[in-house]
Design brief:
This protein is α/β, with parallel strands linked by helices and 244 residues long. Helix content is 37%, strand content 23%.
Length: 244
């Protein structure tokens, strides 16, 4: 029998912005559950990101699709998405504050075990997750999918977050050599890091809408069902090990 998933909006403040996240959970599960942040692609907190929050809820966690732009901004236009992303990256300390406030907000939710935190990050969101972990924001587990690997925040001291990076061998935003270099840096800082690279796979391989966006905007994107399923299954195993 399929899980009965409930969703609700969660608002929290960051300076003069209202941040709007989506919480997903199975109301039939007893007791507080580990929370998994869903850190969005540069399109914002889209329906796809909300689906991933529901996926986490179906797996027995509380899924929380966070807002990195404020006011729940979402776009279907690649140019506008780029502008939103660049604005968010313009001041890393502001972005870090938004991320930390999302964690603080969801930890107050009555369905959440505040001592167990995971995260899944996609594209821009994967890079954000990696940067936060490198800056000392501790997660019990972090999985990233087709995360851009250039321009990540430097590692500040030792790194405690266990990480699994899933990437495509043909992803121009995450060249294999750069992915391996990033992983090596984090291992040297003390982190447990797994890397899975899928041959012949490009950027945004987990998103079923990637092919349409590739055609519309001329972007190097492509959905790959096999890589999507394999990375998801491996993530669930990773989370069972680290969040239980």
């Amino acid at each position: 029998m399929a899980a009965e998933i409930k969703t609700e909006e969660l608002e929290y403040r960051s300076d003069d912005l209202t941040m709007r996240g989506l919480v997903a959970f199975d109301p039939n599960l007893k007791g507080p559950r580990p929370v998994v942040l869903v850190v969005p692609e540069f399109w914002g907190r889209t329906a796809y990101m909300e689906k991933r929050a529901r996926d986490m809820a179906e797996a027995g966690y509380v899924g929380f699709a966070i807002d990195l732009y404020g006011e729940g901004k979402v776009t279907e236009d690649a140019g506008e998405a780029t502008d939103l992303m660049n604005a968010a990256l313009a001041d890393f300390e502001v972005l870090k504050t938004r991320y930390r406030l999302a964690i603080e907000a969801i930890k107050r939710h009555d369905r959440v075990d505040a001592e167990r935190l995971g995260a899944i990050g996609y594209c821009f969101g994967g890079a954000v997750g990696l940067s936060m972990a490198r800056q000392g924001v501790r997660h019990d587990a972090l999985a990233t999918f087709h995360a851009a690997t250039s321009g990540l925040a430097p590692i500040a001291g030792s790194m405690e977050t266990p990480v699994w990076i899933f990437s495509g061998a043909e992803d121009p935003m995450a060249p294999v050599e750069q992915v391996e270099q990033v992983a090596a840096e984090m291992r040297e800082a003390g982190a447990s890091v797994e890397v899975t690279v899928y041959p012949g796979v490009s950027h945004a391989f987990t998103n079923p809408g990637a092919d349409e966006k590739a055609k519309k905007f001329g972007l190097p994107l492509g959905y790959d069902e096999s890589a999507d399923r394999d990375s998801y299954d491996k993530t669930l195993g990773f989370f069972r090990q680290r969040l239980s």
